[in-house]
Amino acid sequence: MTSIQIIVADLTFIARVEEEEAPRTCEAFLKILPFRNKLIQARWSGESAWIPLGDYQLGVGFENHTSHPGPGQLLFYPGGFSETEILFPYGSTCFASKMGQLAGNHFLTIVQGQEQLKELGRKVMWEGAQDITFSLKS
């Protein structure tokens, strides 16, 4: 099982890579590690943060996609109706944009640090954009 360490500000999470369920998304994402960006509060998706990626492409389509991820089930949205993004749910989420409901590829699941998800939500809501880093867990 491949694992990824995700650091957001002073919070550390370990995520399982969903290689069997989203093989193309996982393979493409692993190639760009380490990946650094900013995590901000989502505007339309409920208790979730997101990483806007604009026109960036991983070169994958839809696989293992859902509109209703659980807390800690990260989605990659390959673009189309809205910009490319990574969605990081920390609570109740229905993935959407100003165009309406979306579906994204469930490619990572938090397996350690779930108890910090509420704090992640508090940080992005009340402190603004947070640095986020994804790297292979050694």
Tags for this model:
138 residues, mainly beta, eight-stranded antiparallel beta barrel
Per-chain topology:
Layout: E1 3-8, E2 11-17, H1 23-31, E3 35-41, E4 46-54, E5 65-66, E6 73-77, E7 84-93, E8 96-97, E9 100-101, E10 104-112, H2 117-126, E11 130-136
Antiparallel strand pairs: 1-2, 1-11, 2-10, 3-4, 3-11, 4-7, 5-10, 6-7, 6-10, 8-9
Task: Give your account of this protein's structure.
It is globular, with a radius of gyration of 13 Å. The chain is mainly beta and 138 residues long. A hairpin with a 4-residue loop joins β3 (35-41) and β4 (46-54). The longest helix is centred in the C-terminal third of the chain and has 10 residues, at 117-126. It has helices at residues 23-31, 117-126; strands at residues 3-8, 11-17, 35-41, 46-54, 65-66, 73-77, 84-93, 96-97, 100-101, 104-112, 130-136. Strands 1-2-10-6-7-4-3-11 form an 8-stranded antiparallel barrel. It starts with a strand and ends with a strand.
Brief characterization of the structure:
The protein is mainly β. It has helices spanning about 25-30, 115-125; strands at about 5-10, 10-15, 35-40, 45-55, 65, 75, 85-95, 95, 100, 105-110, 130-135. The strands form two sheets. Strands 1-2-10-6-7-4-3-11 form an eight-stranded antiparallel barrel.
